[in-house]
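question for whoever is on the cluster today: can someone run the full assembly for these? three chains, 1196 residues total. i dont have access anymore since they changed the login thing
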Amino acid sequence: MPAPGSFALPLCALILAPLLLGIVNRTKAVIAGRRGPPLLQPYWDIAKSLRRGAVYGEATTWLFRLGPVVGLAALVAALLVMPFGGLGAPVSFSGDMIVLVGLLALGRFATVLAALDTGSSFEGMGAAREMHFSALAEPALLLALATLARVTGSFALTPVYQSITIGAWADALPTFALVAVTLLIIALVENTRIPVDDPTTHLELTMIHEVMVLDHSGPDFGLIQYATALKLWIFGALLVGLMVPVRSGSAWFDGTAMLVGMVLLAGVIGMIESAMARYRLVYVPQFIVAAATLSAVAFIIRLV
Amino acid sequence: MFEFIVSISLLALGGMLAIVLFPRAGMCQLAGQICAVSGSAFGLVGALHVLVTGDAVSLSGVWQMPGGSFHLEIDVLSAFFLLPIFGLSIVTGLYGRSYFAGHGGVASAASWFHLNMLTASMALVIAAHDGLLFLLASMALVIAAHDGLLFLLAWETMALSSFFLVIFDDRKAAVRHAAWTYLVAAHLGTAFLLVLFVLLGSIAASSDFAAYGAALKDHQALRSSVFLLALMGFGVKAGIVPAHVWLPEAHPVAPSHASALMSGAMIKVGIYGLVRILTLLGTPETWWGWLLIGVGALSGVLGVLFALAQHDLKRLLAYHSVENIGIILLGIGIGVLGLARGMPLLAVIGFASGFLHVLNHSIFKGLLFLGAGAVQRAVHSLELEELGGLLKRMPWTGTFFLIGAAAIVGLPPLNGFVSEFLLLYAGFLAVLQPAAAVAVAGLIVLVILGLIGGLAAACFAKAFGIVFLGSPRSAEASEAREVARPMRASMAVLALLCIAIGLGAPLAVASLAGVVAQMTGATVGTTSAELAIVARPLALAVSVFAVLIAVAALAWALRARRLAVASARRGPVWGCGYLFPSPKMQYTASSFAQPLTTQFHLLIRNRETFVPPQGYFPTASSYASDSGDPALHLLFVPTFRWFDRVVTRLNVIQHGHIHVYILYVAATLIALLIWESF
Amino acid sequence: MFPLIETIHAVGLLTCFALLATSRIGACIRWLSFQGILFGMVPLIVHDDGLTTRILLLAGGNIALKGIAFPWILLKLRARANYNREVQPFVSFVMSILCGILILALSVWLTQEMKPALAKAPFVMLDSSIFLIFVGLFLMISRRNALMQVIGYLVLENGIFVFGVITVVGTPLLVELGVLLDAFVGVFVMGIAIYHITREFGSMDVDRLTELRG
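^ ran it for u. tokens below:
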């Protein structure tokens, strides 16, 4: 069991997460030929929402108010077990992958229930689609994590990520590459980015996550925006930790390399969003199952 | 053993009193309830005593049954399975009187009788420790029976008393049909058990379980047949696919606390039987573990898929029981695989997850059924499309149901997550093994459990969301009132247990050492050490949950303060500019599940009748979805029809002439006597 | 010594043939009563360890029930419900007698086969018991009238009783009383059934029960 990392890591994540969103939006704007919003715009948006008053639907109960709170708390708790590349997480134990998946599921469940609480068909629609895709994405994520576990010989996140060195990549190039693609696809699905969902649209035919939070306002919406950023950070850390095998042993060097990787990832996501159109909703399950298949193939390669 | 005998007697007494007192409804309910609760309390104390001290208690008596012995024994395994039975019985006893308030008459009296007899018989099945009784299958008591004869007698009583509970509302044809389906299925399962016990009896010296174990050591070739027979016989009772078809028929029509007892405790008796036979079989074969994993995966996935398509709340819950039995079998399968391959840690954790899920499932499934019963009492309907907005009108029931739903989905920090954590942990352990077969088994467990978890979350988002959230979809739902305090109290107890086991996960897991040790055959010390390996991660996980709760509280406080300064007011939700939003515009249960049911249509095969609106302006249209059970329609109904056609040809001998019947008897007698002489 | 056992055996056989040959129900009932008293005395004669209270109870109970109580019940039934005082056989009386002889041969043969296993039982009583069982079955098969069914059943019971007394050693009294209770309940139930059959069909022809078949 490696020495637990400090709590500085989650703190950094808490501070830096909305910046990722800012980079994504800026990249999309630049590619589209516009100047785009400032990089720190998400922070201003969250602050603005927190300052506002709220309007609650007539059918809503305490559950509607609790949803964003639990969603955020789940993600913050998940940060406790997330390593950042070579930097260890504050809490690390065998099976923390399971806790991660469980916490993500808790956040999702809370959001969906809050959406159903409004009694509006829009939220119901978003909730149905969200549950559909996440039911398929959860096994895909577990497959990817299981493959990583088998290659690295441990199923605690910190040791797994700490043993992803350049040597390990050379040893298991096809496996890691396939798992990386899977993680990218799952990141796109879980954060409802294109090609699964368009975060900027507000047409009911095309929304998943956006429509679930349609009737939240004020501080609740601020919490939701922040939680979105955190979720992107978490999935980004999972992917970038795999893609950037810099494990020099020096915390500053590894941390900086990871941060560069995260920025690059945000750029890549921006580019994907600009280059692709959204898939028809019926194709998304195929997309997710394809991701799972990639991981399964990666696992089988390492089986013998 | 003293507490056990007292509890059985109290339960039987309660049952008799309920029958005797039936003209006076109040006294009858009270007597039934008091005896149920006190009897179960005694039994629970006894079971806990055995679990804590780790010693088995036994009672042997003289019994004038040919080939049988009256041997009751409660060892750690039996005591563990007695926990959900007695525990749930206490809670449902509390619940039952308020549930029946207003239903006078023989039916309620009889149902108290049967409820008590059911609990007593389940308890006796678990204590029975001796062998062969198939000729007299009428009154007996299963779990304490440690003799195959006593076991089967008790099994039969269990089946019969639950049959009478299921047929409670016997004026409806659908209820009668459901009850008959249940009885036929139960007896088909018992048929396999009869064959099993006859087989065991033919090789063993006596019908005591210990004798069976010794005999099986000498007859290695028979072990696989014994295992398969046990799986089929006990599997029917537990509700594995495809033998699950009686579950969604029987559990919904029984009164809700009876459904809670049946779903929470009775199907576990099936698991108990399988596990008991496994302890007698010694070191298992590898393919047994694979078979159990396969059956568990199939039941888990199909159970939750069928549940998704339901729009009757109790039917949905019944299918979920099938799914959870699948999860339990996944755990036991991994345990068996670990034993077969000589990987003690894997075996220990697999069995621990299976057993913990047995306990957890009885708690949260009991809670959910009690909640459904409360809804039924308040709204008089369980059709999801007619409910809605009940969280506002029944806040307590809604909150407890929410806790149960979150627990059954396996969300942290509740108890469902702990048993799924153990199972996934075992899966990861298996994945790390160099042996390819074990790694693939582990991977299958991981993927299937992930899929089941996601689908279960969808299903319970639908169930809870459509029933309790949004606006009421019918007049009765808008006039629902919160139920009586005893019903709420019983639900509260179970909800608190969910939270307690979730937050006290390391303790819960450590206490399983005794039971698991009996399964693996190791000593309690070794097993405790192995369980301690997984208790440490659980402790750290619980600390993460503590942070979760703290952050949630902080965020709540933050937002409350912000809203005290800024304003918070009510308004309509976005309706795309529509002027007259109505509750009918909400998502319905079928529409919520539609993406998933369409995706898995091949497996679910639900039928939709859709009349679309005609013309340019809105007109009447309708949509109805019906999900008959595919296993029933594709497998059992055709088989039974074929059987019927073949057997009808034999109808010739049934002409109705009594004299010829007696001639048959005499002819057979003479033939036997002559044959015997040669 | 006066061969009591052989006498009972011979007279018992005669009562059976009488039942096979009689055409009126009243007479059958009286033969049955005589048979009951006759075979009720068997425990008093065939005993190993003296006249215990148990033996007395058994013999007394049997004589009371099968010699007196059941025939009385049957007579009352006949008075109340039986419209036809004839026996109504499927098999004619002559054929019945011939069948009776065949049955006797069969039972003697069977007794010889069984004898080595049951050494302590007197041969003739064993023979009687098996003969009684088969004659009882035959009566039930070959007579249409419901009362004859009951009579056949009671003859069967007689046979079982005798068999039990001579072969079974050391059973608790409970078992033997259980056998008597069995017969009692059987007659009781059949009496009720006969009453209802007659009310429903206006006759006691048991064959008409096929009309009830769906």
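summary bc i know u wont read the tokens: The first helix of chain A runs from residue 8 to 31. Chain A touches chain B through 85 residues (CB under 8 Å).
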